[in-house]
Amino acid sequence: MKIIHQRSSYRLLGLVGNGQFGRVYCGVHRKTGQLVAIKYVHRHSLSTHAFLRELHCLLSLSHPNIVACHALEHAEDGRQLILEYCAGGTLRSHMLNPLSLADILTLVSDVLRGLAHAHQQGVIHCDIKPENILLSYCGSRWRAKISDFGIARLVQELPNHKGSGQTGSPAYMAPERFYRQYAPTADVYAVGIMLFELLVGQRPFTGTPTALQSAHLNQPVPTVDHLSKPLRQIINKALEKLPARRYPTAAEMLADLQQVDPLSAELTLPDRAEPIIYHPYRGLPTYSLTHPVHHLKQYSATLTNGTAADSQTLIACGPQLSILQPPSLTISEQSLDGPIQGIYSHKTGLLVSTPYTLWRGSTPTALTPLSHWPTPSLVAVAPHHRWVATVSPSTKQLTITQLRQSNQVPARRPLPPDLDINQVLALDDGHIAILVSSKQAGSQLLLWNRQGMYLTCLDLGITLRQLTPMQQPHQWLAIDVNEPHTVIILTLKPLRMTRLILDICPTFMLDLPLGYLFSNREGRIQLLDRDFSTIGGIQGPAAVTAVTAWSSHELLVATWQDKPTGVSALHTLDLQDFELDVIF
User: Fold this and answer.
1) How many domains in the chain?
2) Cis amide prior to 564 (ω within 30 degrees)
3) Catalytic residue positions?
4) Based on the domain organization, do 33 and 119 belong to the same domain?
5) Backbone phi, psi, residue 268, to 5°
6) pLDDT single digits (tens) 416-450
7) Is 59 exposed, middle or buried (0-12, 13-18, 19+ CB in 10 A)?
8) In this structure, are residues 435 and 415 in contact, taking their beta carbons and an 8 Å threshold?
9) What angle do CA 202, 206, 208 make, to 5 degrees?
């Protein structure tokens, strides 16, 4: 008899990762819009007994530092665990940037709290490592949550069960684990390895699985003199070879860790990042204007024969456009009805938005009104100019106007009155996102389709501003409002937030062919490659108001000096002139 399975209550948004026993997806509940992690386990990759053990472990645990299990679904060829979704990714990805001692102590304390609860419930995790620690932004900080109980053991199994094989991660396994012995102290040992790695930047033991086994069994923990004495003592006790000499419980290790003062011990951390050298720019302005520049946009006009004209740079100075096509700089005589907010170019023409009007034209010097709205609004235009979305912060209303169907009535939708509206984004030709924030919940993304149907709300937790599109679809760079040195890479499919800690507090961000550019208003520029490693720094001209890529290796930087007469200058920076760790 064929078993008929009901359609899943969750819609898949994207693959998050692959594990030893299955795949993990990001999903959304079809009715409530709640984001979840869906762990799909094929029936042949994990025995029913092992699956039921993991399910039992998850259902018996309820703690803010352990990933929660919401539901179980059956599919035709497997099972799906519906789990709490953590958009911050893994602790391993969080370690791409050196963490402060305060952050390390906080996150490790989170792990120990979760383990203490699990041990009290008779559950031993058996695979604690950075890849199995997920992060979620909650209560103004990143919170660590233990995940993946796939090889966990129950204390009641231990007297008659020593395991059916060596499972786990050898780099984090206690000595007795190599002999298939399980105890809560083995989890404490794994936390000790992880704490050492976070503090020092590398694990105490490395090598092949065989070499790691020998090291865990025989080699002493390397002495790290630059760590404070309390930290060395905690690590050494957690990493004792004999379980009886370790911390007997995670709670006792947590108590000692909480005695460490991160402020007094901060200087004991090794400096793992090379200081950035900012090479000075010594050039002179190539062009000047009499008004501040707020937007720079590359634009290629389409000629009447269908071919593309030479690339131009459009310059927004208040309500006027200027056109830079070396060697000439042309200032349009047309003055629009307000400061220019956005410039949207496409092969169909040029669109320019102000707080009140959307303008269009085949050339930047001859724009005509296309759409008008009565109150100052934030604007987003679809990539192929099919529609425009406007959001009025004062009236809290979203309006979507179809640009190719002039007879269609615009869709108007009210927005929650208690939210601060920060930005409106055209995700693609079919979807709109509104970035809103509140003191209690941080930032949220309200998602709509182009017909005006509300889809869902994504709670980010963290407060973000200035979402800047990346070359990859559905990805943005954003600034953390509470940590201005921190940039968040926000990915929507699936939802993920990756943290970058910079040497500067950026105001301008660009996705370049060689990597990523971040600049502050003082002209200090930090460049990162595609792996987010710093490739150099430039001390450019001060008082920056706008930055754009001018070619594959050139930047156009606009500055403003309001004294003595008020002059906006345009500078050309050739990245090949600076000592950067990159091959052009």
Assistant:
1) 2
2) yes
3) 127
4) no
5) -80, -10
6) 998 899 999 999 999 999 999 988 888 999 999 99
7) exposed
8) no
9) 150
